Amino acid sequence: MDLDIDFVRAQFPAFSEPSLKGQAFFENAGGSYTCAPVIRRLTRFYTQRKVQPYAPYEASRLGGEEMDEARARMAAILGVETDELSFGPSTTANTYVLAQAFRQWLKPGEAIVVTNQDHEANSGPWRRLAEEGIEVREWQVDPLTGHLDPQDLAVLLDEDVRLVCFPHCSNVVGEINPVVEITAMAHAAGAFVCVDGVSYAPHGLPDVGNLGPDIYLFSAYKTYGPHQGVMVIRRPLGELLPNQGHYFNGGTLYKRFTPAGPDHAQVAACAGIADYYDLLCDHHGGPASDPVERAAFVNGLFHAHETALLQPLLDAVKDRNAVRLLGPTRAERRAPTVALALNRPAAPVAAALARHGIMAGGGDFYAVRALSAQGIDPEQGVLRLSFTHYTSAAEVGRLIEALDQVL
């Protein structure tokens, strides 16, 4: 079954917003449009529930119930227990808190593995542990392709490694990394695994329980929701690490790594992401089974639609003179996040695209290490063209025509 793109776009107010008329959005990797179910929940919370939650009076009780609903439904989609999921202000902030917990838990001489393919959020906080005598080993990309080879990781693993951090896919390379294989390798060596799913989750919320990592992070504002970071920490690791929250919350798993009070309204609004998945599943005749299976059905629709739109774009740019496409040339192997290294600064090219009604970005996208590793000057940056399932074939056609004018 094909994705009903008209139905999909009807769920996003941005597509009927007069101020956005005639513009095609291709900077989704920086943050997606927000779906109507999320907006409705956020509006309802701010208008009807904006009180301290979990008190006995009705507005408070309902506010707390909506926050709990968001956690339960998102955890169910991700295939984990409800208290293994927590919310924070951003993935960067969540990773920083986790790094502080590992800072207390690790011993000098023990090691962690990071990559130079990551967004800085899943690299910088971990690298700072070197200040405490922790050995930081870098799993490096192929400088020509940006590929992370699992065999190169194997060389880095030994009995001293306690944690392996890597992205589900890079926000500039786009290649999808084999999480199950890499996680199994790390676990066999006695290490925990932290996966940055920020660039992958917008293209299908994953079954984290089946993938197997101990930590999985992504951003709700890139998966059609409010500005929150979503963090899964599986119970064995979550109970092992030192509590980073208030001491009296140490016995509650989802509070152990949220030292600040949560944004009540945005947490509650995250249930709208689950609402949206349910709308799509039911509209397309998906299974009336458990949330993981329903999400897998929706993810399949996303993948087929995105792959069909992505391949023409890749074909249009991969052989251009003075343009270097980062990552795989086949749509099946990557997310629709397409970074192009040019022979000039990328930001002015993005500005030129804007004059053609194309919203895109130029810069380093906090992937300075990944660009440098591939011989790209971060000061010049890359032109990034990113889309998701609500993008239409007509918009991709407009993008390709605009590229013909500015490249």
Tags for this entry?
single chain, 407 residues, alpha/beta, 7-stranded mixed β-sheet, 4-stranded antiparallel β-sheet, 15 helices, 39% helix, globular
Explain what you see:
It is built from 15 helices and 13 strands. Helix 8 links the parallel strand 6 and strand 7. The chain has 407 residues and is an alpha/beta fold. The protein is globular and about 60 Å long. The strands form three sheets. Strands 2-8-7-6-5-3-4 form a seven-stranded mixed beta sheet, sandwiched between helices. A four-stranded antiparallel beta sheet has the order 9-10-13-12. A two-stranded parallel sheet has the order 1-11.
Share in helix = 25-40%
N-to-C order of helices and strands: HEHHEHEHEHEHEHEEHHHHEEHEEHEH
Residue runs with pLDDT of under 50 for 5 or more positions: none
Structural category is: alpha/beta
Q: Please give the count of helices.
A: 15
Q: So what's the overall shape?
A: globular
Largest sheet: 7 strands, mixed
Beta-strand content estimate: 5-15%
Q: How many strand segments?
A: 13
**How far apart are the termini?**
36 Å
Biggest sheet strand order reads 2-8-7-6-5-3-4
Radius of gyration: 21 Å
* Overall average pLDDT: 97
Oligomer: single chain
